[in-house]
Specification:
9 strands; 167 residues; alpha+beta; single chain; Alpha-Beta Plaits; 2 domains
Amino acid sequence: MTPEDFVALALATPLQSGPAQFGYAMRVASDRRDPPGVIALTWIAAADEGERERIRAHSKRNVEDFLAEPGFLSIVTGFLGLRGFTVTAWVDEDSMKRALAKHHAEAMRELFSQDFVASVWTSVWTPTRMNRLWVRCTSCGALEDVNDDHRACSRCEAMLPERPAFW
């Protein structure tokens, strides 16, 4: 099966177990390793499957614009039944605003001028506290604080794995 087949399966047969819903998610990241200066959280509920596909088409174009913005870090997005969600990480709010002024602005005009989507919520968050980013040394097993992106283990001096992106 291809990744697209799994997405199609998740969309066609949403699973639920008690309060838990299952669907699909995707992460798209830039090459930047900066800590996020701002995070945007969004959820959007489609009225039906056709609307969900319309939202997904807009999302695809939005992500293309996001990748072109130098201050974009990454996005995690997905759908659970008819409810979509995004978490986007940005270097700063100006970067986010520049990216949202592109296709996203067109999608928002459509949202407010047509009978499109059942409900939506958006928000922008700034960090209260940024905890440390830790990487395990593959040689000695030490857990290294790599916020400064040092490359050698402080215990055994072996080269550490590349520091992952913050988001």
